[in-house]
Amino acid sequence: MDVLETIRLHRSIRKYEKRAITVAHKEAILRAACNGSTTGNMQLYSIIVTEDKEMMLRMAPYHFNQSMAINAPMILTFCADFNRFNRYCACRDAQTDAYNNLQSYHWAFTDAIIAAQNACVAAESLGIGLCWLGTITFNVDKFIEVLQLPENVIPVACIAFGYPAETPELTDKLPLEALVHHETYHNYSDADIDRLYYDKEHHPNTLQLLKENNLPNLAQIITQRRYIKKDNEAYEQVLIQALKKQCFMH
Amino acid sequence: MDVLETIRLHRSIRKYEKRAITVAHKEAILRAACNGSTTGNMQLYSIIVTEDKEMMLRMAPYHFNQSMAINAPMILTFCADFNRFNRYCACRDAQTDAYNNLQSYHWAFTDAIIAAQNACVAAESLGIGLCWLGTITFNVDKFIEVLQLPENVIPVACIAFGYPAETPELTDKLPLEALVHHETYHNYSDADIDRLYYDKEHHPNTLQLLKENNLPNLAQIITQRRYIKKDNEAYEQVLIQALKKQCFMH
What is the rounded distance in angstroms from the CA atom of residue B20 to the CA atom of residue B37? Predict the structure, then answer.
């Protein structure tokens, strides 16, 4: 399928047919994932394929039992990975502690997300639906344990894949001018915010959310119900501890 | 162009025709960038378009004067951006400090790289070449200054785009089995490393590098010449200071 059309038709798919991803489709997705740009061609990522139901159910609570984490035929977890490269260095009398820092973590993080997004575009071009599970960075310590990740490996993205059993509407997005700046960043006046968020605030999905949450606007729903300061800060501590344990922070 | 074929043919392009990216192509790239998955549909990224030569030349030293940073007709810098969302919250009597932490930074980082990779795949499908400039996270403080990024905005990816004036070979990559794990992570024995790196170590590009660097293997070239511990740790400090200045770290 054509690239621009595939990307234009992107939406999160949360309900899947029961059947497994075919071997050919799985291979195409993984090959696409592993052919993106990477820092210095070091390929600083690993992909963990979850298809075993028992493994899925062990991880589901850490994904807050979202239905996608339980019912998807395949979950891919993308890890920032300096372990393999360090193992290579160890086998070649090269330094093995040059990348135990937050700068190097950024390179591996980037490599992993590039791979993840390549996997997503490839999957969608094959008619496979997907949904990102942001919970991977919330409960990162638990996923490190269950997936048996060694030092220098941190899971940064997790995506559920399956043949779609629903066709939701396309997601509402901010207009391009809200996201794009020319030459330098131009900060947003109050009037800019009103204008750029107008369509989103008047979208039927948003109006439905306001009713369900009994709150006056989307900003308050997100800050008071969805991504709450106290929780974010607790998950920040979990993440920092994991970065330390995995040797990317001191 | 077909997705799988576009991704299979990916290679970094470092030499570009002089002509500008057409308006239609630029619009297609930006639209694709802005249609990826994002955390809670908050779209936590901004894209800075650089086409002005003066701006390019101001930034070039911080990209170590790589030719792509000087000669590309267009550079896109992708930023993890909580500023716009916080501005929206401020305009709606919602909390504006819920996302001043490293956990929330991870969401915005992820959103920005998804957007960047969508832009890359879209561009390549249109016959436009590109090269990532990893230098963006090395000299992040300088880019924040030149691009006039407010608090809660950090540049995380930078990509030079142009119509290709070269057709390099496809990049050598590790075999799929080096990158993919099933159910749990399986660490690499010395024998695994020898086997999985065999093709890369015997690739003509690698043999050429060994000759040029007068070093016995690729691991030593990378650790002693390319990404050196002392430099990585200095750039780590720059990054940490920037994360603090932009309110994502305490």
Answer: 29
